[in-house]
Amino acid sequence: MRGIQLSLNQTQKIRLQRALQQLESLSSKVNSNASVTVADTIPINNEDSILKGHGTSERGGEVVATLCGVVERVNKLVYVRTLRARYKPEVGDIIVGRVVEVAQKRWKLEINFSQDAVLMLSSMNLPDGIQRRRTALDELNMRYIFEENDVVCAEVRNFQHDGTLQLQARSQKYGKLEKGQLLKVPPYLVKRQKHHFHHLDEYAVDVILGCNGFIWVGEHVDVRESMVEDQTENAGEQNSRSHKSLEDTPIETRRRICQIANAIRVLSNLGFNITVEVILEAVNLSSKLDCGVDEMLGPEFHVALAEREAQRRSQSKKKG
Amino acid sequence: MVGLSLGEKHFIKGGIDQNIRSDGRKRDSYRPIFVETGVIPQANGSARVRMGATEVIASVKAELGRPSALHPDKGKVAIFVDCSAVAEPTFEGRGGEELSAELSVALERCLLGGTSGAGAGIDLTSLIVAEGKICWDLYIDSLVISSDGNLLDALAAAIKAALANTAIPKVNISAAASGDEQPEVDISDEEFLQFDTSAVPVIITLTQVGRHYIVDATSEEESHMSSAVSISVNRKGHICGLTKRGGEGLDPSVVSDMISVAQHLSELLMSRLDSEISAAEAEGGDEEL
């Protein structure tokens, strides 16, 4: 529970402690000996031929951990999966990133990984939706698609031989994100799921849970209209489009966006996994407690949410 | 500086216009404030203040020195600000110097009053040990650990908390010297004097974005600012200092409007800070027991 710094009063402190204890007691004890800290011995059951993987080292005939985490075994390979680590992309992950550079035929995106990811112009659906070879003209018009600092949603395509990461955005659902806010949470809080795009119908809000810990909360946009019909009409279209994007978000939607964003902030402060169900639960709790959007970041809501989560997990445990 | 896309910029601006900012705050509300005192054991007083993601540390170090010839009845206070490269990569090397200088000048103006020391938030005459001969020099050093906007307000709050935490040893003059000689002094290890911080002002920065102004701007919001006015207000509601940043000019009526808003907000901020400081002091006391 690193980093919770709230001015709690005495009762709130006790309540939070109790909720956290309850959560701890609920966590599964099955693999408790599989979690290691630095210098813990990893038992290898006298197997001669094991492969030492990431986070392990041999010391005096024993295999010891050099990282904190969970021991994972794949056949002969033994490695430590760290608990708090930078985002490690896997092929097929849906990520949210920010454009840092427009280069030749590619955009470079900041995605919270140890290096910037590459989105090639050729792995993008062109705005006109026609499959064709990318021309020099397309290359010159790249800034009409994304420019520096734009927030973009994409999918991890593959790793190159030199370790660079390639992205693709070959569908209408990927692309530029506008009218909303980008939140950054620790990437280990976002688990890979079936769905990362969520349209919360009743709130008219879109939530995109990027596997890299970047979460987009914004006004709902319908499946993107084919934006640019013809390259020659570019300038005129561009104007009308930017005009459209300057329309104000309705106040009720904005309130919902802020409410959901604050729910995510509180969840990440408390270190709970972030899924759309948990977010909605937190939003409902805030409505039920009659907690204003601006009060959600205060201590009382943190404590209430921790208690709610403890209760929810204990219930689901009983059922299961 | 943070990079924001056009869409995000527009969203933030629209939020300020509609009085719901990105984290749900209204234009005139502060982020949660967290105060911890006594964080540096070798200083006479220290405090760490968090406002949202902005985090600063202030420490007070007291040393015996000679008062200046012009003001023999007053002690000396110096304020320094350092911006850590941890807060933002651009602060590395000399990158943070400009900002540090700007902040320390603004703090000196707001907390110390004129060069004569008149009207200072800290009562300089209370720092005198022997008039014209010995006084306390206070060195107030502050460090920006993490920067998410509104640094000046956070620094002023941290300095206020650090001064409230400061204990200055009692000094006994053991042998009264005659003439120009320096008297011998005996610094007590047991008896300490607490500072009276009731006159230390708080600083409220109002950032003008578009047609409205906001308090406690995050760095994202500060990237839109046209100008910002920092007003330091003491407990009586009197203005102790005023600085303006940013290129764009302001209408005089807006400034006077801002001042009255700051005056009103200062009461709330002052009482909130006071309760946070006393809670932090109580907590520190518990740990020592």
From TrEMBL, chain A:
Residues 180-220 form the K Homology domain. One of its GO terms (biological process) is exonucleolytic trimming to generate mature 3'-end of 5.8S rRNA from tricistronic rRNA transcript (SSU-rRNA, 5.8S rRNA, LSU-rRNA). Residues 86-157 form the RRP4 S1 domain. GO terms for molecular function: RNA binding. Residues 227-248 are annotated as: Disordered. InterPro entries: Exosome_RNA_bind1/RRP40/RRP4 (IPR026699), KH_dom_type_1 (IPR004088), KH_dom_type_1_sf (IPR036612), NA-bd_OB-fold (IPR012340), S1_RRP4 (IPR048565). It comes from the Eukaryota. Its main location: nucleus. Keywords: Exosome, Nucleus, RNA-binding, rRNA processing. The keyword Nuclease does not apply. One of its GO terms (cellular component) is cytoplasmic exosome (RNase complex). It holds the Pfam family S1_RRP4. Belongs to the RRP4 family. This is RNA-binding domain-containing protein. It comes from Linum trigynum.
From TrEMBL, chain B:
GO terms for biological process: exonucleolytic trimming to generate mature 3'-end of 5.8S rRNA from tricistronic rRNA transcript (SSU-rRNA, 5.8S rRNA, LSU-rRNA); nuclear mRNA surveillance; nuclear polyadenylation-dependent rRNA catabolic process; rRNA catabolic process; TRAMP-dependent tRNA surveillance pathway; U1 snRNA 3'-end processing; U4 snRNA 3'-end processing; U5 snRNA 3'-end processing. It comes from the Eukaryota. It is found in: Cytoplasm; Nucleus, Nucleolus. One of its GO terms (cellular component) is nucleolus. GO terms for molecular function: mRNA 3'-UTR AU-rich region binding. InterPro entries: ExoRNase_PH_dom1, ExoRNase_PH_dom2, ExoRNase_PH_dom2_sf, Exosome_comp_Rrp42_subfam, PNPase/RNase_PH_dom_sf, Ribosomal_Su5_D2-typ_SF. Keywords: Cytoplasm, Exosome. Residues 30-169, 200-263 form the Exoribonuclease phosphorolytic domain. Belongs to the RNase PH family. This is Ribosomal RNA-processing protein 42. It comes from Linum trigynum. The lineage of its organism: Eukaryota, Viridiplantae, Streptophyta, Embryophyta, Tracheophyta.
